[in-house]
Amino acid sequence: MRRILIATSNAGKLRDFAGAALAHGIEIAGIPNFSSLPTVVEDGNTFEENARKKAEQYSRHVPGDMVVADDSGLEIDALNGEPGVHSARYAAPDLHGKQPHEADANTDDEANNARVLRELRNVPPEKRTARFVCVLAVAQDGKTLATFRGGAEGIILDAPRGSDGFGYDPLFYFPQIRKTFAELSAEEKARYSHRGAAFRKFLEWCDRSGKAGSSPSSE
Ligand code: IMP
């Protein structure tokens, strides 16, 4: 089976990628010894900047291999697009007394969701529109070859629903199939999610450009 290296230690993301890849006969693997590599500081102002930075830096540790990194997050319209690139650290003011952009550690999903609910407590349902965004960057030997963006439009509920998924999934209601992202099977998440959409664009690019990892003739 063909194989792509993914630069993430997030088990939820790896599961999503594996679900999206399966349908294309591709195996997803983590970068060997990922947890012992120096962490990449995600200080970019956009998903693109962070995804490129991660893919470029991690690809230097596996010469010749194509490495895919994603940066993703939740943009809530009533909060002017926040938490956005700060999605993984949104509860930093509650837990560490720092603003998300100053924080050097991620905050846990429960605290992040609690802050979203608090910030939106007076916002009516029709104004709770939001989207998940995922940008994938593919890099080789420290250089970005391409980036791909996927999105999913939804509504933020006023209480969590569902027990699968990770991050903000239990708060993100997806009207198209009347479920939150935490109520989706792996196949449904791959089909409807921002990560699945970006990943499909990546696979199309692999096929078009005949890049390693996707061409039927490669390993
Ligand atoms: P980063 O891309 O590592 O900076 O982290 C993105 C953060 O956005 C995650 O820690 C989650 O809080 C949130 N996020 C991104 N994608 C998803 C998703 O598919 N479901 C739920 N939360 C997500």
Describe the secondary-structure layout.
Layout: E1 2-6, H1 11-22, E2 26-30, H2 47-59, E3 66-76, H3 92-95, H4 109-119, E4 129-140, E5 143-156, E6 172-174, E7 179-180, H5 186-192, H6 194-209
Parallel strand pairs: 1-2, 1-3
Antiparallel strand pairs: 3-4, 4-5, 5-6, 6-7
Helix pairs in contact: 1-5, 1-6, 5-6
Could you please describe the fold and organization of this structure?
The protein is of the alpha/beta class and 219 residues long. The chain is built from six helices and seven strands. It has a single domain, classed as Alpha-Beta Complex (Maf protein). 29% of the residues lie in helices and 24% in strands. Strands 2-1-3-4-5-6-7 form a seven-stranded mixed sheet. α1 (11-22) crosses α6 (194-209). It is globular and about 50 Å long. The protein binds inosinic acid. Inosinic acid is lined by residues 10, 42, 71-74, 87-88, 112, 132, 165-169, 181, 193, 195. Inosinic acid binds at residues 10, 42, 71-74, 87-88, 112, 132, 165-169, 181, 193, 195.
